[in-house]
Amino acid sequence: MPITRDEVAHLARLSRLALTDAELDHLAPQLDQIISAVAQVQEVAADGIPPTTHATGVTNVFRDDVPARCLTPEQALDGAPAVEMQRFKVPRILVEE
Amino acid sequence: MDELITMTAAELSAAVAAGDVSAAEVTGAHLERIAAVDERVRAFLHVAAEDALAQAREVDRKRAAGEPLGLLAGVPVAVKDLFTTVGAPATCGSKILEGWYPPYESTITGRLRDAGAVLIGKTNMDEFAMGSSTENSGYGPSHNPWDLARVPGGSSGGSAAAVAAYEAPLALGTDTGGSIRQPASVCGIVGTKPTYGGSSRYGVVAFASSLDTPGPFGRNVLDTALLHEAMSGHDPLDSTSIDAPVPPVVAAARHGDVSGMRIGIVTDLSGAGYQPGVMSRFTEAVELLESLGAKVTELSCPHFRYALPAYYLIAPSECSSNLARFDGMRFGLRAGSGSAEEVMAQTRAAGFGTEVKRRIMLGTHALSSGYYDAYYGKAQQVRTLIIADFEAAFGQVDVLVSPVTPTTAFRLGERADDPMAMYLADLCTIPANLAGNAAISVPCGLADEDGMPVGLQVMAPPLADDRLYRVAAAVEAAFTARLGHPLLTESKGLDA
After folding, report:
1. Residues B169 and B163: beta-carbon distance below 8 Å
2. What is the pLDDT of residue B59?
3. Residue A24 lies in a domain
4. Catalytic residues of B, which ones?
5. Is residue A87 part of a domain?
6. Domain limits at A16?
7. Would you state the pLDDT for residue B496?
8. Chain A residues near residue B365 by CB distance under 8 angstroms
9. pTM assigned to the model
10. pLDDT under 50 in chain B at which residues?
């Protein structure tokens, strides 16, 4: 199923990527080509075949709940773009309608 | 060239332990080599000269004090720039992490420090490990030491180029779809993708979590096995880590004996699109193994032809989820203005390169409602069928062999804006990632057309990594005997 430029623009919004018109022009036909190629998986007769999410078969790994050393607040905040009162400072989250 | 930079890791650690040379001298010689050639190779993004010398002097102090020395005492190791190490930046080849210093150490680099290794610098890579040439790095490409106009492969291309250019005897990479084996092949060195879960992902920045596998590069099979052993083993900090002993890879690398071994040629990994020079070296390597006493048969893994499309649904899906953390809020770049959501979208648009954007959108598409069953769900079923193909094959043979990649190193720029052509570089390596198997690339000669190195891929069942080293050691010994010298000494790209 071909993918249109409008659908690619929608994907960019869902992916939180503020693409320019030039980028959309460039990426839309490439994504269409890639998606047509990967759609080959649909040829495979796989009815009743269980999916594999993970190759090792390791499931639910537990450990005892014991205190251990972790990052200090200073270390955790060290790479942040903005910090205030020992917290990550972010732009406003709620937007007035 | 300074003798210290052409010595093997095994020789260097023995010489340091015996006191024939100091670790500081070994590190100093490699730093000089980097200063002399890296302007042309561009393997490194960050060289930690002072820090590396301090690590080396600590090894020398331990030796003087009579304290025990590790397996890699005084051996410089180059580290792909997606491992977190305290005191050095980790960019993952991305502008979105420019200048970020990780606050914690990866399990693997911590183990290497404990083993006495000297972490000499961080190497270039395709952004977030997405690519096969290093051309997707936000900091410009690395160059193949055999021919500087060609790519070193990728995504761990900086690590492979550093080892091939004698800037470090060993390097760390990660392999999600071939990102260790393909650069090892096109740079004429050895590289291993261990069994998934055999090497810890703690402190390795995630691309596709169910596929990402850290592994070693070396100029020869034994050195690669030494690094494999030093970095491997169960890690409680990685919940997908396997709680089992490390396979005896070093012992296997010392005994390259394939007599009586059952070796299967995967017939599906050949044909149209494979460079003739790659196929003739592959055929010769198989004949060589037969002459050494291996029992060679041909067999088919019919679902391998769907491995590439399945991979390009599964890996982008996992990437679109993993890379959601790069939102400009807690670390890395923050760009633009407005609400948090607007800042996120502007930060990600400014910080990510084109390939990363393509993959995030592809993954978002494959996971979206209405398409999930047809794409991601179907790809996961194909993954089950590929595992079944491997299991059937390993019922008949001990290891499988194929070319590593369909062509030798391509020219810089040749595939840079043709994503499907770039993806084909991983055609032969992806099945082992989807199944979690162990696989290695070992040099098996030069292609007639272009004089560039060709690698032989050997694949083994999970936790049978030692079989890879038995076969690779046999191939290496026979080729070195035939040539009269290691293949890599024929590399002339840096002589000019």
Report:
1. yes
2. 98
3. yes
4. 80, 155, 179
5. no
6. 5-43
7. 63
8. 3, 11, 31, 35
9. 0.97
10. none
